[in-house]
Amino acid sequence: MPITLLAIETSCDETAAAVLRDGRLLADVLVSQQAHAAHGGVVPELASREHLRHIIPVVQQAMAQAQVSWADLSAVAFTQGPGLIGSLMVGAAFAKTVACCLDIPLVAVHHTKAHVHAHFLGVNQPKFPFLCLTVAGGHTQLMMVRDYLHMDTLGKTLDDAAGEAFDKTARLLGLPYPGGPYIDQWARKGNPEAFVFPKPQVPDLNFSFSGLKTAVLYFLQEQQASHPQFVQNRLADLCASLEKTIVDLLLEKLERAAHQTGIQELAIAGGVAANTRLRQEGAALAQRNGWRFFIPPLRYCTDNAAVIASLAYHKLRAGFTADASVVPLAQLSD
Ligand code: KG4
Ligand code: ZN
Question: 315: which of 38, 116, 185, 299 is 20 to 30 A away, CA to CA?
Fold first, then answer.
């Protein structure tokens, strides 16, 4: 009997469902909630309501795309956390109901560990153990990946995530939300050395980004006092310099982790893995040191249910299932 698994992801502002059969992806459907753009960030209450609206059509579409019926399902998986609690509850309630009605196993998945599985869905896969830097709007985490299930956190952000650093500074520059892709676009036309922003010195392999936002705010206020058009006139240089600061902070820690562990396989995941400079400088860093650098297909970098399905498949095979008492958790330890 093949293992046919339905996976649900609802941790933030994407409602997603995927179907995986024996490790092969049959369907991968996603609705990216547009309702938040006008608010300059994800509004938790709005996200829960949007998940409620989308979950059934998204699952139906995934099952139609995979050409499977309810009777074909051997397990159902969902994101247990970390994430927005109201959003997680929608996915958890849905998955529990399916498991209960069909009397099939339920698998609870850790969202940030699932991000790493973006590397197991494409053709070019790193070898174990490898280092994975997961950089997204909600998380920034450096992990040593020992196998499909076992990952040790070497460092994480102490405050804002890298994606938030992009989004919050973009907002100060008057760019739309989410600002990361806009900073990336403008940065291509600017000089990354034009301005120097302070880099918080955090010991060990942890990260900190909240100071950058404050530094940029004061810097802009100071410049605009004498040049009201400062941001408009220097937008490309500002974006390029900000992008360089964030990417340098990320790659400095990745490089240090590689030296400390001796691991020569480096990988990135999460929405910020789309960033042009991070991709280019990460590849250059690896090349200088004779290491390998992996960037997964972009559609698996941002939140999606395919990576939830992949981790769930390996958990299921190892016998890690949940019972009906499992609850979603906004904070879920690694
Ligand atoms: O993985 P993701 O979709 O959501 C979370 O799980 O948090 O990541 C979204 C984040 C946003 O902060 C967005 O600004 C950032 O990824 N992002 C980028 C780029 N594309 C997306 N940041 C910098 N450069 C990009 N090209
Ligand atoms: Zn995520």
Answer: 299
pLDDT in tens, 6-28: 999 999 999 999 999 999 999 99
Ligand 2 centroid – CA 302 distance (Å): 6
Ligand 1 close to Cβ of residue 167 (< 6 A): yes
Sign for the CA dihedral angle at 46, 166, 185, 126 comes to negative
**Residue 113 CA, ligand 2 centroid: distance in Å:** 9
* Ligand 1 pocket test, candidate residues 166, 249, 279, most atoms within 8 A of CB: 166
With contact defined as beta carbons under 8 Å apart, do 309 and 20 qualify? yes
Single pTM value for the model: 0.95
Strand, coil or helix: what is 61? helix
Whether the CB-CB separation of 287 and 294 falls below 8 Å is answered with: no
